[in-house]
Every structure is written in C-alpha cells, then in structure tokens.
C-alpha cells in the first residue's frame, strides 16, 4: 500500500483512528490516487469506511474526508447493514471484489460492496 503522508486523515490522526484510516485506505484505495489533502469522492470515502468497519467490527466514518458525517452515514448505513448480515463467504467475496475494483479503477467499490456490478 502506498501511503500519502499529505493526506489530512493520516496527518491529523493517531492511535486507533490512524489504524482505521490506514486500513481503510489499503482496503479500498482512491482511484486515481489523491494528494495534498484530497481524500477522494464521497463514494470512495464511504467504501473505505465500510470496508475498514467490516474488518474492525464496527462502522465508524473516516475523519477529515471533506464530507459531512450525515452525508456519509446516508450512504454507509444501508451498505454496512446488508454486508454484515450476509453469510461470511459472501462478505469476503464482496470485500475482495471491492478491493479489486478500487485498485483496478474498474468500477465503484461502494457499488460492489452493496452487491452491484463487478462482483
């Protein structure tokens, strides 16, 4: 994983919050890569929060994204609820497909997490 040390969420967090940000950025990296404080689109940010939350066991939104928590929650909650109620094998398949979509810039990782195209 490439780490952008200009990313505000990395620069301004520490401890468990930093761990969550790094995990999120690695599981569903923004495409194309951002720099100088840019965190990505709303969908990318929500996909990152959802993927990291799945791995860590709770949905927490990423800080310093430039989007309101309300905006993020409106997108994240339904995806999170559906993802976490699926059988484990399907959860793993969606997480893997979302990661592949993000790193290939081939489709929207949030859509993939929600069960959409490119699964």
What does this structure look like?
- The structure is a single chain.
- This protein is mainly alpha-helical and 119 residues long.
- It has one domain.
- 60% of the residues lie in helices and 0% in strands.
- The protein has six helices and no strands.
- It is globular, with a radius of gyration of 13 Å.
- The mean pLDDT is 86.
Supply the key terms.
about 120 residues, mainly alpha, 6 helices, about 60% helix, globular
Total of helices:
6
Give the class from helix and strand content and strand pairing. Answer: mainly alpha
Q: Work out the count of structural domains.
A: 1
Note the overall shape: globular
Order of helices and strands: HHHHHH
- Extract low-pLDDT stretches: none
Q: What is the mean predicted local confidence, pLDDT?
A: 86
Radius of gyration: 13 Å
Secondary-structure blueprint:
Elements: H1 8-11, H2 15-27, H3 42-56, H4 69-85, H5 88-104, H6 109-113
Helix pairs in contact: 2-3, 3-4
Characterize this entry briefly.
The chain is mainly alpha-helical and 119 residues long. The protein has helices spanning 8-11, 15-27, 42-56, 69-85, 88-104, 109-113.
